[in-house]
């Protein structure tokens, strides 16, 4: 975090107005890293320990929420062992340390959330919350009614039975089809594996919404 003036820091922490904070400093009631500060020019950062009347004062880091339209060709992690571009390369002007909320494959595009809010991340990614995720996909071939039923009722992938999903054909030219898929889980490459399972591999995949965010 950048450094800011002590009185601004105190005001942003909600201790008092900036003017009142200056008075507190002048009265010798404010300490920075154990030392009483009475001069106004002092600058501080999140790394400093600030006390007023012997009580610690902490600034909450600003919570940041980003809805990113991820292009294909970016990895949705903070670092990549193979040196590929990561989604953090797309949000370089954000000062806070944000993390991807869940994942999107390297070759999938669309909605990826980024945040520094751990509670928000937990609520959106923990399986018990069953947050709805909607994808648009182009598939090779066109599934039969039976295949669609199997897809919606649950498929065995990697020794795991998928929970109920929704599958809707939007367009078809007989050889490929464009579909809308809704799942409530987020296993690794789940949509691709489910589509493989019904014999219609994914050609293109894009996430269009997560819960109420689209
Ligand atoms: N399912 C997939 O197969 N890939 C994604 O990126 C997201 C869901």
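^ Assign residues to that structure.
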């Amino acid at each position: 975090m950048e450094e800011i003036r002590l009185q601004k820091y105190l005001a942003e922490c909600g201790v008092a107005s900036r003017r009142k904070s200056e008075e507190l400093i002048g009265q010798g009631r404010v300490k920075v890293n154990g030392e009483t500060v009475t001069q106004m020019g002092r600058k501080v950062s999140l790394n400093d320990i600030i006390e007023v009347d012997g009580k610690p004062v902490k600034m909450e880091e600003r919570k940041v929420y980003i809805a990113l339209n991820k292009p294909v060709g970016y990895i949705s992690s903070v670092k990549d062992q193979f040196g590929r571009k990561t989604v953090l390369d797309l949000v370089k002007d954000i000062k806070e340390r944000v993390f991807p909320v869940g994942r999107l494959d390297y070759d999938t595009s669309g909605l990826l959330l980024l945040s520094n809010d751990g509670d928000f991340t937990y609520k959106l990614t923990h399986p018990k919350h069953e947050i709805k995720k909607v994808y648009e996909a182009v598939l090779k071939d066109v599934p039969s009614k039976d295949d669609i039923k199997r897809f919606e009722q649950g498929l065995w992938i990697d020794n795991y039975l998928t929970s109920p999903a929704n599958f809707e054909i939007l367009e078809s030219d007989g050889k490929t089809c464009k579909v809308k898929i809704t799942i409530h889980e987020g296993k690794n490459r789940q949509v691709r594996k489910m589509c493989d399972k019904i014999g219609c591999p994914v050609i293109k995949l894009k996430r269009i919404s997560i819960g109420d965010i689209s």
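The domain at 61-125 is CATH 3.30.70.580 (Alpha-Beta Plaits).
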